[in-house]
Amino acid sequence: MRKPKIVVLGAGYGGLMTVTRLQKQVGVNEADIVLINKNDYHYETTWLHEASAGTLHHDRVRYNVTDVIDTNKVEFIKGTVLSINSEEKKVVLEKGEVEYDYLVVSLGAEPETFGIKGLKEHAFAIANINAARQLREHIEYQFATYNMEEEKKDERLTIVVGGAGFTGIEFLGELTNRVPELCREYDIDFGKVKLICVEAAPMVLPGFDPELVSYATAQLERKGVTFMIGTAIKEATENGIVVGKGEDEVEEIKAATVVWAAGVRGSSIIENSGFEAMRGRVKVQPDLRVPGHDNVFIIGDCSLIIDEKVNRPYPPTAQIAMQQGELCASNLVALIRDKGELGHFTFDNKGTVCSLGHDDAIGVAFGKKMTGGTASFMKKMVDNRALYMIGGPSLVLKKGKFNVL
Amino acid sequence: MRKPKIVVLGAGYGGLMTVTRLQKQVGVNEADIVLINKNDYHYETTWLHEASAGTLHHDRVRYNVTDVIDTNKVEFIKGTVLSINSEEKKVVLEKGEVEYDYLVVSLGAEPETFGIKGLKEHAFAIANINAARQLREHIEYQFATYNMEEEKKDERLTIVVGGAGFTGIEFLGELTNRVPELCREYDIDFGKVKLICVEAAPMVLPGFDPELVSYATAQLERKGVTFMIGTAIKEATENGIVVGKGEDEVEEIKAATVVWAAGVRGSSIIENSGFEAMRGRVKVQPDLRVPGHDNVFIIGDCSLIIDEKVNRPYPPTAQIAMQQGELCASNLVALIRDKGELGHFTFDNKGTVCSLGHDDAIGVAFGKKMTGGTASFMKKMVDNRALYMIGGPSLVLKKGKFNVL
């Protein structure tokens, strides 16, 4: 009897969780397991704001996929997925094709610019390792150039962050640590620097406890961040952004650096493969399979699951992706052994912590609200936990965060 | 009787040497001494190729002027000189004017582009701290951007150095150390990087011993540098350079980074002040004064002295500037005390060492030719000697180079 072949696409939180669980639970004679990823490394998406600001080196934010998979049990293919042909049960890569019996799609997210003019061309996104280090170097180049010009262009020292959600706020927190360093490095007066957060929604960190949010905004404002809340970016240009002001008026904000952190969508490979999706996210069954595709699981940022309590989709987070990965693995085991019902996904919320720089944060965990050093400590533990879940104690020792105050 | 006022313009090698000697030799009642400099720091012009490549931090390449001057004896003014009015014996600054009885002009050099089209707009120069760190960041940004683009632009990884003189060769030497680091940092194949040295003259390092020159070119070629000797840059563009090829043909070389290291001239303030000069250099009398101006000394890169042995001007070097500064100080002392003849300048050649990176060099010192580790050691001693001459042992300890193999 031919062994079934399980193919996992993407080595993010969901994909690696699935593969590391599968390699423990599945015998070599039971199934072939293949993991396909664009890079030979995994990166911590939730740490990219640090690499982008330049407060944590990007090599601290990634590790080799082969460090955490058992290469005796899992075949790793470094390749870029173009599309999935679910009729013929195969994955089309930039180079070649791979057939599957069971497929796990965990291809992560992409920036969503909602059609706002100029964002794709002129704004940076905190999207991956390549993007993060380019953004870091772009900002540094602006500071390095400032004193070279006869006529000083103060907009070189203006950084606009579009979006006051999780990524935007965490990135601003890192910038408040990084910018004073850059000022010293390039002989620049900190008073010349502008950090501006532009958010179309009427609030910062929607869904977060209001008391914690007002702590966060006060702390960031104290460190030099200006908030423009309820303000929509109409356009990004070569020179900065144009925002709406009142009914019909617009205002130009000159800025050499515009970072778009106000939205993500699921991978566009989802639509390219013909799956029915909303912004790249497929509403999956409770067992995480795609309706009508009994052999295809979608997990992580490309999946969409409704939080019944608020009747809204769960936001795409690492925590959910990892929990989905665990269930996905056990459901795959049930399928290949052809026994039992598949398990249903329920989200076990361990809490959420939003960093505000290296020594400050806000969060809720164990049903308790936290701020400052306590929350910052908790954030580092959350980060270390993700490493532990995927790579065990050795990965925590290698890549963990221990610079606790 | 009014004390005479000595004003020194520029805190480079010549200016600081003059001031530090004056403050030892002149009593507070004998003269007022004023030092004017654009920045509140001195930088080691001869180390800028390291800061530009990113192999030595620019803060290692500079120190505060007030660290080496005796502020009880010397008044330091941070100011930018616009011109000298020798009729009215005053210096015009961006903000205000300063009168003098005796003037020492040691304003250093500027890049000379010989009217080559586009160089000013599109090429970098290794000219000062601001320029060096901008160049460093520009190169890094190109490497950071390479992997972000769908269609890879290999010219991002091409660095053209115009000029195979001292600065060009030393900068290339640093690049051969730095580029492998950048490749690791940004996941780039070293094979994609091009380091090209374009030199219009038919030789590398003119004036240097041919045996040493062939050692240098062989070493740099081994580490990835391509030499295009006898090749003139016709134009620098947004995309790179255009070089002459044969009689009428031209060839385009695409490069995101073009560094012009093929010529310097004396400060343009010299001409703006009406002194007769060739490319900003004034042919001074043997006592270092300007013909017809008994109270104005010009030293360093703005001065021109003929080397009688070869009937050509001495090249502008730190070594000469410092020796001129010593003589300038003692001649000033003779003038204010109104006794004796002024001394005449003779250059005491201590030798020359050209670095080829952190552990390699070529040079001649004590009448001996040296290469490799020996020459590299000697280069560091030369660098430390300049610190010692100006700031004594404490400055050597603070800023010296001790990373000797």
TrEMBL record, chains A, B:
Keyword Oxidoreductase applies: yes
Broad EC category: oxidoreductase
Domain FAD/NAD(P)-binding as annotated: residue spans: 5-325
Origin superkingdom: Bacteria
Keyword Cell membrane in record: no
The EC number(s) this enzyme carries: 1.6.5.-
An example molecular function term from Gene Ontology annotations: oxidoreductase activity
UniProt KW keywords: FAD, Flavoprotein, Oxidoreductase
Required co-factors: FAD
Similarity comment: Belongs to the NADH dehydrogenase family.
Protein name: NAD(P)/FAD-dependent oxidoreductase
